[in-house]
Design goal:
The protein is mainly α and 166 residues long. The chain contains seven helices and no strands. Helix 1 packs antiparallel against helix 2, helix 2 packs antiparallel against helix 3 and helix 5 runs parallel beside helix 7.
Amino acid sequence: MLELVALTGTMVYSIVNHFPFSSWGEALFLMLQTVTICFLVLHYRGQTGKGLAFLVGYALVLLVLLSPLTPRAIVTLLQASNMPSVVVGKLLQALTSYRNGHTGQLSAITVFLLFGGSLARIFTSIQETGDPLMAGTFVVSSLCNGLIAAQLLFYWNAKAPHKKKE
C-alpha cells in the first residue's frame, strides 16, 4: 500500500502541475498494476466484495485528489512524502544486509538497473519538468539505490550461513 501512496502522489502532483505524460506515465501504469494486484489478492482470498470496495474507494480518493477541492499544498505534501518512504524502505533493506553480513538473493542486475534508472530520472525530471521536488525525489532515490549497489559489491562473495539440521 505504501507503494500505491507513492505512485499516486507522483501521478497526482505531475498532473496538477501539467507535466508532460513522459515524466509521469510510468507511475500511471505502475499504479494500475498495483491496484490490480491488490484487488486480485482480495479476490483470491474470497473477499471479492472488499476488493471491489477497495477499487471504488481508491477511485474516489483519486478523483478528490485530482479535483479543485484538494489544495495544491496537500498534493505537494503527498509528493514530498515519497522521500521519507524511499529512505526508510532502502535503509531498512541496507540495515538488514549489514546485520546479515550478506545481501542474500538480491539480484545484481535489478539493483544496478534501479540505480542507473534513478540516476537517469534525475536528468529527465530536470529536463521535462524543471521541478526541484521531482528531481530531489530521484536524487534521494539514487543515493539510496547507490548504497544498496555498494553493499552488493562489498558483500559480493559473502554467503548466507547454512542452518544446521538438528
